[in-house]
Amino acid sequence: MQVEVIRPYGFCHGVKRATEIAFDLREKEKNRPIVILGQLVHNDNVAQALKEKHIETILVDDEIENKLKQYPLDTLVFFTAHGHLKKYDEMLDNLHLESIDAICPSVKLNNERIKNSLNAKKDIVYIGKSHHPETEAALDIDERIILFDVKTKEFIQRIKFPSYHQAIIFSQTTLSEKHYLDAIQMIKKKYRSIDIAPRACFEMYRREEAVKNIDPLTELIYIVGSKHSSNANELYQTACEFHNDINVEMISCKDDINKKTIENVSRVAIVSSASTPDKVIEDIQNYLESL
Ligand code: SF4
Predict the structure, then answer these.
(1) What's the pLDDT at 174?
(2) Mean pLDDT of the chain
(3) How far does the centroid of ligand 1 lie from the alpha carbon of residue 90, in Å?
């Protein structure tokens, strides 16, 4: 079987950095409880490795404060690469818990650019997916930021204020090019003029372009990622759209490979989401090449 691993593969630099920070922290702070607020990476192998190192993950919901109250005062609370809401800093201060922020430098740069644009006398429009943690953290910067939700294609304005009829546009880093460009077209219709802020991360763009360029003679495309991962779903949709005569499947690891799917298949492409470790991709490659 001819197997092509589409590059780049493995973690994006933000996820890689956050994961390394978490494991390094465990090495340095051997006896302290460590809890991660929300999923560090949408990957079962990493989740299992964190558990084995006694690094807990807790869901961020309305009960978060009560959950954290159950932990000892020397607990380290870990924020993921997506960024987080300001209220959690206040909450941890009140609970006297120390925190570590593993926000991706590119997400941080995006958020800093948003902050610097707040006084530009233009509407700030953020293209993103409502309820995605990165989008929620960006919107939390200021209530005046208007969300353009790529799922519903609606503008969500949280407080009333007169529009400047001009807008500066920012976006969630894990959107597909199609979602991003379609959103810009819709925003253009609403405003007299728009400025598009430079994008802070091209990780998704590079992966998506690589998917579009997969050899048309390929018979099967595996998108490797979690069904809960925004960028894995975006890559899946791109593959289906650009290769509608190739079978496209989403799997999370080698064990998800259905032998029937690969029967009589001689060319496979493996695509990695930004939250899939290198090893998962290499295991799939080795397995397929061994057939
Ligand atoms: S996709 Fe880009 S911005 Fe988002 S976490 Fe990865 S490297 Fe950072």
Answers:
(1) 86
(2) 96
(3) 26
